[in-house]
Amino acid sequence: MQRSHARQHPVEDLPDDVLTYLLGSRYCDTQKLSDTAWSLFGNVPEGWARVQAIVDYVHNRITFGYGFARATRTASEAFQEQVGVCRDFAHLAVTLCRCMNIPARYCTGYLGDIGVPPVDAPMDFSAWFQVYLSGRWWTFDARHNLPRIGRILMATGRDATDVAMVTSFGPSCLTGFKVITDEVVPA
């Protein structure tokens, strides 16, 4: 199936295990953005076109910067503040999709610079999201908004709460962190 032909399911036809990805969650505060989502995307054709319109909107609305990182920012706050890091792009896109009855889940992992010009910065965790269309999960990335290869998916969940990089019980100090990815070229 061509990606652009992926269709949106009526809610009543969704598998039970997918329904949870329509609900609001800690960082995906759907109740605050539902009216906004319908006013922005209600006239966009359902399915792939609607998801891509949401991704384009979020990509253009939020300015990325590590200095904008805040562990407590919700999707509605990212919408208002218009700044954030990859998790904020993902949370806002997930929330807008859920508001439009498109199941969406938050993804965390690594995204190297395979197939794109390398950046002069250490590799870091990344966040993107997946939507359920035509009976399967499809990957989207509102921060980068272009197809990328070399994603290393670590976990999916309702939002960053479900798949936190670290959950600690007491004081902790990260003393080192290094990830390297290389493309494997067929012999």
Helical stretch count?
5
Please tell me the CATH architecture by its name: Roll
- Encode the helix/strand succession as letters: HHHEHEHEEEE
The class by helix and strand makeup works out as alpha+beta
Query: Can you give the mean pLDDT?
Result: 93
N- to C-terminal distance = 30 Å
Radius of gyration (CA) equals 17 Å
Number of strands: 6
CATH topology: C8orf32 fold
Percentage beta strand: 15-25%
Q: Explain this structure to me?
A:
With about 190 residues, the protein is an alpha+beta fold. It has one domain (about 5-155): C8orf32 fold, CATH 3.10.620. Helix content is about 25%, strand content about 20%. It contains 5 helices and 6 strands; from the N terminus they run H-H-H-E-H-E-H-E-E-E-E. Helix 4 links the parallel strand 1 and strand 2. It is globular.
List descriptors.
two-stranded parallel ribbon, alpha+beta, 5 helices, C8orf32 fold, single chain, 4-stranded antiparallel beta sheet, 187 residues
Short précis:
With 187 residues, the chain is of the alpha+beta class.
Write the layout of secondary structure elements.
Elements: H1 16-19, H2 30-41, H3 48-61, E1 63-64, H4 75-81, E2 83-84, H5 86-99, E3 104-111, E4 125-133, E5 136-140, E6 151-157
Parallel strand pairs: 1-2
Antiparallel strand pairs: 3-4, 3-6, 4-5
Helix pairs in contact: 2-5, 3-5, 4-5
